[in-house]
Write a structure and sequence with these properties.
The chain contains 9 helices and no strands. By secondary structure, it is mainly alpha-helical. α1 crosses α6 and α6 (about 100-115) packs across α8 (about 150-170). It holds the Pfam family TetR_C_41. This is TetR/AcrR family transcriptional regulator. Keywords: DNA-binding, Transcription, Transcription regulation.
Length: about 190
């Protein structure tokens, strides 16, 4: 990689880190692009060159956090004794992430308001395809009832996402979490063969 390319990658990384911190602390609407660019000693032009606009920068931060959430869920699922347990753990991990203040603010509260329906986000589509692949495997091994894998994946992911949104918006997220996890497990148990 050339020196210029390395410098551009470093600039992008610095902007993302500063934006993530600011979006988590102040929210989307109260994050100032002038203050943000001053923090990383850049011009607004550098920000717009790399991300287009504030919404593009926010989408990049959402993508970064979403990928980290998926990686965390997959890592936890690897230690499970079965594919079925792994599916449950991945969903539970996603739902539990609703207690993280950064995820609450950026992904669950501001994300839908700024970027629209989360099911249409590119990172969510990758997650959906992964869940569909797992469902297909579970059906093939006889662990899950024979259902349409795409429909089942959409419903499983939707249950996890909506549980997380509910927890994040709850006046007492710590109290809502165990109720959401119990309901999630019961819903999925109906799919088990």
């Amino acid at each position: 990689m050339s020196k210029r390319a390395l410098k551009m990658a470093e600039t992008k990384k610095n902007i993302l880190a500063a934006a993530r911190k600011s979006f988590a602390e102040y929210g989307y609407s109260d994050t100032s692009m002038d203050k943000l660019t001053a923090e990383v000693n850049l011009t607004r032009g550098a920000l717009y060159h790399n991300f287009g606009d504030k919404k593009g920068l926010f989408a990049a931060v959402v993508e970064e956090i979403d990928l980290e959430m998926v990686e965390k869920a997959k890592t936890r699922a690897k230690s499970c004794a079965s594919l079925w347990e792994g599916l449950l753990i991945e969903g539970e991990t996603y739902i539990e992430s609703a207690l993280d203040p950064e995820i609450q603010r950026i992904i669950l509260l501001d994300g839908p308001a700024v970027l629209g329906d989360p099911s249409l986000w590119p990172s969510q589509n990758r997650c959906l395809l992964s869940t569909q692949h797992t469902v297909t495997q579970l059906i093939a091994e006889g662990t899950m009832k024979a259902v349409d894998p795409e429909a089942a994946a959409i419903l499983i992911n939707g249950a996890g996402m909506n549980a997380s949104l509910w927890i994040a918006a709850s006046p007492n997220p710590q109290e809502a979490l165990p109720n959401a996890l119990t309901a999630f497990k019961l819903i999925l148990s109906g799919l088990k063969a």
